[in-house]
Amino acid sequence: MGKKIEISSKGYEDGSFQPYEFKRHAVGERDVLIEILYAGICHSDIHTARGEWGEVSYPLVPGHEIAGRVIGVGSKVAKVRVGDLVGVGCMVNSCQTCSTCSTCSTCSTCSSGEEQFCEEGKTVYTYASKDVFHGGALTQGGYSNNIVVDEHFIIKIPNHAELEKIAPLLCAGITTYSPLRRANIKEGDEVAIVGFGGLGHMAVQYAKSFGANVSVFATSESKRDLAFSLGAKHFYNVKNSEEMQGLNNRFSFILSTVASSYEITEYTKMLKVDGEIVIVGVPSLTNPATLDATSLIWSFRRKVSSSLIGGIKETQEMVDYSVEKGIYPMIEMINIDELDQAYERVLKSDVLFRFVIDMKSLK
Ligand code: NDP
Ligand code: ZN
Fold first, then answer.
1. CB distance 259 to ligand 1 below 6 Å
2. Rounded to the nearest whole angstrom, what is the distance from the C-alpha of residue 82 to the centroid of ligand 1?
3. pLDDT tens per residue across span 97-145
4. Which one, out of 75, 159, 175, 352, has a CA that is 20 to 30 A from the CA of 299?
5. Residue 200 — φ and ψ, nearest 5°?
6. pTM value?
């Protein structure tokens, strides 16, 4: 090992994808070299590639829903062996040791398994992120043939899992599983999922599996029957004002995955007293979701909170749970040359429900 790994990929620049060759950092003693077999397309990839969350450097290789096979390990790697199936999500490193206090096991820090909240500010995201552990170079993501990742950030995939469907779990899965678990959703709870795309259709399945009565809010009428087939009890077309009447005080928990502009208090008023809405959708800076304080107060007493992916321990738990329960995304497999069209189709909600790139198509 020791030498930098040559990478083929597709990088985003000037509004479209082009072939792009670069080098990954060398495989260190605790690093794992993975041949990427499948990569999901998350809406965050599009927001980032198009600079909707702020300036980025190009060429940019997105992709943080990665499934593949181990093809090399550093001398001190104990977690996986060559040949194992593995996944990589939104993070590839963090300080791994920070702790808010020495006695509390519930602080959200690296040492309690929430590496996305690294107190040292050293969370390294899978792409477009400064890799402070490798000279500050910007990371490049999973639309590529190989990746090198610290073993701590590897998710183990059981051999019998449907690998191409595992990829989207690494972001869409954990981002929805985590807040639903934290909310302790249980039998009979009235839960609403707003936005029925890549994240939303996973959220419906998890909420249903925890025993909730699930309602879906979406703009695509064509997805009504699919919502029922994935376990929803009710479907509300947000464009149909009649369907949106009479829903006040209905839900104990709402998860919003909407990727574009909307007014959050349209949903807070649907919560029961002390009910909670968790926002995971991150619209663009120029077309943000809004929260009107006056309407919020007149929603009486409701909780509005947020959630960011989930830690590595919980991501492993989510993958194991999903495989055990047979909870998988619905996917459409594409070749790498279809990336530009796929991005346009995601923006039109024209995919059921996640694109996954077959990385064999990357020459
Ligand atoms: P998708 O595009 O797959 O899904 C979003 C869905 O929202 C669309 O399919 C559309 O579906 C629906 N929608 C659009 N406008 C409305 C509206 N006004 N009301 C209700 N539904 C609407 O995106 P993803 O699921 O991949 O991602 C969703 C968001 O979550 C993105 O902003 C992404 O960046 C963010 N994200 C956040 C993470 C976190 O850690 N917090 C992690 C990953 C992603 P329909 O046809 O049903 O209307
Ligand atoms: Zn994502």
1. yes
2. 36
3. 887 666 665 667 888 888 888 888 889 999 999 999 999 999 999 999 9
4. 175
5. -60, -40
6. 0.96
